[in-house]
Amino acid sequence: MMHSAILNVMIKAAQRAGRSLKRDLGEVEHLQVSLKGPRNFVTAADHRAEDIVRAELAKARPDYGFLGEEGGVREGADKTHRWIVDPLDGTTNFLHGIPHFAVSIALERNGTIVAGIVYNPANDELFVAERGKGAFLNDRRIRVAARQRLDEAVVACGLPHHGRGDLKLAHAEIFAAQQSFAGLRRYGAATLDLAWVAAGRLDAYWERDLAPWDLAAGLLLVREAGGFATDMAGGDAILARGEVVAGNDTMHRELLRLLKDAAKAPTQA
Ligand code: IPD
Ligand code: CA
Ligand code: CA
Asked: Is 218 in the pocket of ligand 1 (CB under 6 A)?
């Protein structure tokens, strides 16, 4: 399948970082690990992967800006383009040898995400999308699931942990979701949660307290796969508010309603 020149640059960067992560996965017990906050790990593997991605992207587009989870903001001479990168999404999974993690790269042009990829090197699944050109998994076109019945739906969510996020609200939302859906999943990599909604594996997904690098590429995948994604108020301030509700039109609407109701009655949990 022919990808655009810019997508090929992003794919090459992600695959190079992916090879480094696979090597580190084999050595995970020897990896240097440090804490960025309560239960928020970062490893030498995260830094190595980000250095590789940044170097590859800078080789092809030296003037573009860069926002990376580990290295922060790097201004570019070209103020209209910015890379948004999570070099290793699912660090806690990675540290436990759980093969569910990804490299996520998005390209923002004048504030709009125009290209995005999410790559899981453990199973070599490459999710790509370009604005107006659809979404693909390993070169096969993907679409969100068409399921309309909540009691047949499998939904993923984030699970805040102690010291991060509103546990009481989360419990109320999970309590409500358990009443409605066929299954609830917590996989531990937000970029893959969105990519799996785009691929129709998950019917919907919601999470709060996310950073732009957790969301940017996955949002474009969901929308180019025919899905809907908003913030918890149903608006488009997803990156700014760090929250997302995603799914096909019915699942998105029903999940948003369910979450709003749960927020009104958190005491029941
Ligand atoms: C984390 C994962 C996790 C989500 C956290 C993120 P990281 O990213 O996406 O699923 O619940 O909020 O911070 O730290 O592994 O890149
Ligand atoms: Ca992340
Ligand atoms: Ca990360």
From this structure: no
CA separation for the pair 117, 104 (Å, rounded): 6
Residue identified by tokens 């690098």 is 213
Pocket flag, ligand 1, residue 210 (CB < 6 Å): yes
Instruction: Tell me which amino acid residue 162 is.
Output: H
Cα of 88 vs centre of ligand 3, distance in Å, is 4
* 83 backbone φψ class: left, alpha, beta (φ>0; ψ -120 to 50): beta
Do 46 and 161 meet the contact criterion of CB atoms below 8 Å apart?
Answer: no
Residue 91 Cα to ligand 1 midpoint, Å, equals: 7
State residue 267's pLDDT score.
55
Cα 193 to Cα 54: distance, rounded to the nearest angstrom: 24
- This prediction has a pTM of 0.96
pLDDT digit string, tens, across residues 168-198: 999 999 999 999 999 999 999 999 999 999 9
Half-sphere exposure of 24 toward its Cβ, with a 13 Å CA cutoff?
23
Whether 156 lines ligand 1, by a CB cut-off of 6 Å, is no
- The pLDDT value given to residue 82: 98
Question: How far is C-alpha 143 from the geometric centre of its chain's CA atoms?
Answer: 17
Query: Can you give the pLDDT at residue 52?
Result: 97
**How many angstroms separate the CA atoms of 46 and 85, rounded?**
11
Query: Is the CB of residue 172 below 6 angstroms from any atom belonging to ligand 1?
Result: no
Distance from chain centroid for Cα 32? 24
Question: Which atom, in ligand 1's list, is nearest to the CA of 190?
Answer: 9
